[in-house]
Amino acid sequence: MEPIPLTLISLLLISLTTSQCLDTRRESGISDGLDTFLVTEYGAIGDGKHYDTAAIQAAIDVCHQSGGGRVLLPSGGDYLTATVFLKSGVTLVVQEGARLLGGTKEEDYPNESDRWYVVLAENATGAGITGGGEINGQGGEFVVLENERKNVMVSWNATGKCSGDECRPRLVGFLDSKDVKVWDITLNQPAYWCLHLVRCQKSWIHNISIFGDFNSPNNDGIDITDSNNTRISKCHIDTGDDAICPKSSTGPVVKLTVTDCWIRTKSSAIKLGSASYFDFRQFLFDNITIVEAHRGIGVQIRDGGNARDLVFSNIKISTRYYDPLWWGRAEPIYITSCPRFSTSKSGSISNLRFENISAVSENGVFLSGTNHGLLHNITLKNVNLTYKRWTEYPGGLFDYRPDCQGLVKHNTAGLMIEHVSGLDLQNVKMSWSKSSLINGWGTPLYFRPNTVDKISFHEWQSEKSLDI
């Protein structure tokens, strides 16, 4: 038998590789005509041990230069990477059964600490992430000492690039970008914040799952910083720190809509602030389920900005005590405005509407402004509040944190009000379990008369005999 010519072997190998690539494209369900670039064609190994950064970045760059399309991480691979930079017009597709793993070394990330992300898009238009797979920050590798109260974390602040133990990489970031899309993806085990939008315009976040270590601090789910026209829907967030957190550091946050989400957190499920130098306005949170949070809904103005025209509707909340190391004392609704420092300006909070809210909590609603930063025009309509103690953590504390007065010993009340002008309660019901009454908690309202005016009650009920 004559030997097969080398050129023929080469052609057969090329044909086989092409066939496999076409099979991968077909299996991925990509059939809409957009160009698709497989990272394996650019040298990615996907064994979880060798870095695939160069191959992934090459596929992204070629896709961008070709006018855009998809960069595909095929199923079955664990693709270890340092920071990869997403470009305009490129959608990163992490296929179901594939994982993109973030590196755990400081040299895996750019020199500037504010660019420490596993996936980073800067000044991009039309960039996105999808695919049904997983982006994993390997957050467990950043835990120095596991602790149920609060984990001790790695800090990369020895170089002076940042300060404190928050010197850890975030998972996914979009900076100064437009038309952002993140959908059908799992974001798992971030070392720090998970998904971060910074000065972005027109972002769409849909059907993503976020899982963070429940005992690790700064494990935020979605942070929306100085970004406008953001839509978040059908997301599942289970993490240790604030779940959905708008922040205004260099500009306002306007037109945020969050719908149909499920949240569990050891901190605040929804938290506006505490970075609040500019305005928050025109927000809608609707059809949200909050499970065992340390705080349910929080609006925390500390830096002179203002919050107004916010609607929270059709929300189910359960809150419970965790260790006092974590901010929050199980408040289902927590609205506060106070200067962070003596030199800080006072901000205002106005025109907030809470409608069709039900809560089971270990603490009461907390509404607190200041002399120069009153809360104005707060409406609670069709709100059912059930108070029940089931943990053994101590109560009897007002929690003004972050900053301000800190923790203050005080008898617990169903509704605490101070420095409020304009509070409308319509069909608000408070009920106490027997266990709560045994623990000495049965005060429906607490307020200082000289700090509160324009309060109206319509069909308000307080019951102390609920047997649950």
**What is the radius of gyration computed over CA atoms, rounded to a whole number of angstroms?**
25 Å
Strand proportion: over 45%
Helix content: under 10%
Low-pLDDT stretches are 1-24
The domain tally reads 2
GO biological process, one term: carbohydrate metabolic process
GO molecular function: polygalacturonase activity
InterPro entries: GH28_Enzymes, Glyco_hydro_28, Pectin_lyas_fold, Pectin_lyase_fold/virulence
Protein name: Exopolygalacturonase
Primary descriptors:
468 residues; GH28_Enzymes; 49% strand; 9% helix; 20-stranded parallel β-sheet; elongated; six-stranded parallel β-sheet; mainly beta; Pectate Lyase C-like
Structure description:
One of its GO terms (molecular function) is polygalacturonase activity. InterPro entries: GH28_Enzymes, Glyco_hydro_28, Pectin_lyas_fold, Pectin_lyase_fold/virulence. With 468 residues, the chain is mainly beta. The chain has two domains: 133 residues, Single-stranded right-handed beta-helix, Pectin lyase-like (Pectate Lyase C-like, 3 Solenoid); 223 residues. Helix content is 9%, strand content 49%. The strands form five sheets. The protein has a 20-stranded parallel sheet that branches. It has a six-stranded parallel sheet with strand order 5-8-13-15-17-20. It has a six-stranded parallel sheet with strand order 22-24-26-28-32-34, with no helix packed on it. The longest helix has 22 residues. It is elongated, with a radius of gyration of 25 Å. 47% of the residues are buried. The N terminus is likely disordered.
